[in-house]
Write a structure and sequence with these properties.
The structure is a single chain. The protein has 281 residues and is α/β, with parallel strands linked by helices. The protein has one domain: Vaccinia Virus protein VP39 (Rossmann fold). Helices cover 43% and strands 19% of the residues. Strands 1, 2, 3, 4, 5, 6, 7, 8 and 9 form a nine-stranded mixed beta sheet that branches. α4 links the parallel β2 and β3. The protein is globular, with a radius of gyration of 18 Å. The chain starts with a helix and ends with a strand.
Length: 281
């Protein structure tokens, strides 16, 4: 890449970081998104819990926002270190810990590409947000290689991604497609995976990258992780009306069927979110 190209990329990265900071710092309340009965939260915990040891684990929750996963894991006896780019999130997590008497092992305001941990010191790294806020492939690989660096050999990274077709499904489900501006966003998402909302309409999310399942698998492999597995989080429930969750018996059946079909290749792209798991050899 030429010097001019490097400068242009750096400027774009800074602008994107500023936009994401503004989104989570001023526009959107991430603290209220992952509620106890959120399907994304319930299903992600289902998947993550399979990889938690009975003995206490040293865990980095990278891009962990206000600590929803960190506090859950701390409640199970583990030692999570919360890392997030947005200072507001870290402040909210500290306040929650003090209010509820559930302190985390550490709180760090920082970048997923430069973690504040020594080499090979952690039992598990969660990346439940960074991969879908970095549009450039080298940046996503840098995040994954940094996770690889701080993990002990034989231990796991667990990553979340938004799927390439999320805007397509959400646009029709929530009638956003009636807006010509949203249709342009959706078309770019489908063509490139780069989601951008220059008018900053709150309902249409902020700058992001939407993965195809095979691309997510390839990125973990490129960063050095082996035995990569993908899981659909919401799966086919992405297409359903939210009212179906009001009936507990149906909701329980739904969770059972989502678990049954979570690795069916044909259904991975239907899910709003994917979770990828890879091992450091």
């Amino acid at each position: 890449m030429s010097a001019a190209g490097v400068v242009s990329r750096v400027k774009k990265e800074v602008a994107m970081a500023d936009e994401i900071q503004e989104w989570y710092g001023d526009t959107y309340d991430e603290d209220s998104r992952l509620t106890a009965d959120s399907l994304e939260f319930v299903r992600s915990k289902q998947i993550i819990s399979r990889y938690l040891d009975a003995a206490p684990m040293q865990i980095a929750d990278v891009g962990g926002a206000t600590g929803a996963y960190s506090f859950w894991m701390a409640g199970l006896g583990h030692s999570p270190y919360l890392v997030d780019l947005t200072s507001r999130h870290i402040d909210q997590a500290r306040a929650k810990a003090e209010r509820d008497g559930t302190p985390l092992a550490g709180y760090h305001c920082g970048d997923a590409r430069n973690l504040p941990f020594d080499d090979a010191t952690l039992d598990l790294v969660l990346e439940m947000g960074p991969l879908y806020h970095l549009q450039q492939h080298p940046d996503r690989i840098a995040v994954l290689r940094e996770a690889w660096r701080v993990l002990k050999p034989g231990h796991l990274v667990i990553c979340a991604a938004i799927t390439r077709y999320a805007s397509l499904f959400d646009g029709f489900k929530r009638s956003f497609v009636k807006d010509e501006y949203f249709r342009a966003i959706m078309d770019k998402d489908l063509a490139t995976g780069c989601h951008e909302n220059p008018q900053k309409k709150p309902a249409y999310f902020t700058t992001a990258y939407f993965h195809r399942p095979d691309d997510l698998r390839s990125e973990l492999a490129e960063a050095g992780f082996g035995d990569v597995q993908l899981f659909a989080v919401e799966g086919f429930a992405t297409l359903l009306d939210d009212e179906i969750f009001a009936d507990q018996a149906t909701a329980d059946l739904l969770l059972d069927k989502l678990q049954q079909t979570e690795q069916v290749p044909e259904l991975l792209g239907v899910s709003d979110h994917l979770v990828a798991v890879g091992i450091k050899p």
